[in-house]
UniProtKB/TrEMBL annotation:
Record-stated family: Belongs to the cysteine synthase/cystathionine beta-synthase family. Belongs to the TFB2 family.
Domain Tryptophan synthase beta chain-like PALP stretches: 37-337
Location(s), subcellular: Nucleus
This protein's name: Multifunctional fusion protein
Positions that bind pyridoxal 5'-phosphate: N110, G216, T217, G218, G219, T220, S310
Length: 372
């Protein structure tokens, strides 16, 4: 008892301010968010010069590559911005009532996670419909955030999940259920025009010359470019899509190369040309094969940057852009959309998974000592 009392006195003592009353009044703690959604945005840039060098790009001409680390959002992806913005927008339009409204969305990806976490914070129910092929890991993430997960047959793919979402809303009392529709929602592009674009502009002091972004819904590429191009009309926008599914290239009048079909870059190449995508603002489309994306994602992990597969695709495309003569002296900024731990079921990690599973207990190693 006595030692507990002594400890509490000591703790109290250590908090006791040792400054004058005047200073005490002007002190305040900083960098505190009042709720999780306040943590969305304001992501930093990371210097990716090391990747250029390891890929043999001649950087003596002054080319610079930076990545915008959307992987550092509160739920680890660029979709955190979209989830907050679509819900803020629906709230502003008076469409949502805490404790009553049900957000229904056909998504298995990062959008589902973003919607689930904001819905949880704000007191809305969230139902996510997705094909049964989605990993248990992914279902667990959504269910841990309080969302209800409804699986649809794999044969009906994404359209099946959308049909199911509509069916669920139709079965709810009038006005209770809402589908926010990320591929059509104007709040998607707007959030990137109002936050991601201005952040890049400010953090590069307006020196950005080339912007490289993947296309899922097209929200990021459209919004960022719509903010920066009026300020710097010669900034170039490069969109990235899976080589196995070159729909944006085709929509821009380009040729598809190689075999078209399924790809392994989650978050990109949704199999449609999204309504919110600003096709005209894109200057070039660079296709990246799923294997190339995984190779680069692996390389990013190897420099200590755990990112997802689409980040690999985008950095691979940005590296190709940096290799060109025209990139001399240019600043290239690319998006790193998500954190890597979310993709452990991707084949990229199968070797590590096997190695981790077959680890055997070893005797303690000798202490590591690198002194002379
Ligand atoms: N990569 C990942 C991992 C994503 O989740 C998304 C969003 N679907 C994107 C890239 C593409 O972003 P956007 O939808 O803004 O085009």
């Amino acid at each position: 008892l006595r030692s507990a009392a002594t400890a509490s006195v000591r703790i109290f003592g250590s908090y006791k301010p040792q400054v004058s009353l005047h200073l005490q009044q002007t002190r305040s703690i900083v960098n505190v968010a009042s709720r999780p959604s306040d943590l969305v945005g304001n992501t930093p840039l990371i210097d990716l010069q090391k990747i250029l060098k390891s890929r043999g790009v001649d950087v003596s001409n002054g080319v610079k590559l930076y990545g915008k680390l959307e992987s550092l959002g509160p739920c680890s992806s660029v979709k955190d911005r979209l989830g907050r913005s679509m819900i803020d927008d629906a709230e502003a339009k008076g469409l949502l009532t805490p404790g009553e409204s049900v957000l229904v969305e056909p998504t298995s990806g990062n959008t589902g996670i973003a919607l689930a976490f904001i819905a949880r914070e704000r007191g809305y129910k969230c139902i996510l419909t997705m094909p049964e092929t989605m990993s248990v890991e992914r279902r667990m993430m959504l269910m841990s955030l309080g969302a209800e997960v409804v699986l649809t047959p794999k044969e009906t793919a994404v359209p099946g999940a959308l049909a199911k979402a509509k069916e669920i809303v139709a079965g709810l009392p009038e006005g209770k259920g809402i589908i926010l529709q990320q591929f059509e929602n104007e709040a998607n592009v707007r959030i990137h025009r109002e936050t991601t674009g201005p952040e890049i502009w400010k953090d590069t002091d307006g020196l950005i010359d080339i912007f490289v972004s993947g296309v899922g819904t097209g929200g990021t590429v459209s919004g960022v470019s719509q903010f920066i191009k009026p300020l710097k009309p010669d900034m170039k926008t490069v969109a990235v899509e899976p080589m196995e599914q070159m729909l944006i290239t085709a929509a821009k009048g380009g040729e598809k190369i190689g075999e078209q079909g399924p790809h392994k870059i989650q978050g990109m190449g949704a199999g449609l040309v999204p309504a919110v995508l600003d096709l005209d603002i894109i200057d070039e489309v660079v296709p990246i094969h799923s294997d190339e994306a995984a190779d680069m994602a692996n390389e990013l992990w190897m420099i200590g940057l755990p990112v997802g597969i689409s980040s690999g695709a985008i950095v691979a495309a940005a590296t190709k852009v940096c290799e060109r003569d025209e990139a001399a002296g240019k600043m290239v900024v690319c998006v790193i959309p998500s954190f890597g731990e979310r993709y452990f079921t991707h084949p990229m990690f199968s070797e590590i998974k096997n190695a981790a599973e077959s680890l055997e207990k070893q005797p303690l190693p000798e202490p590591f000592d690198n002194r002379e």
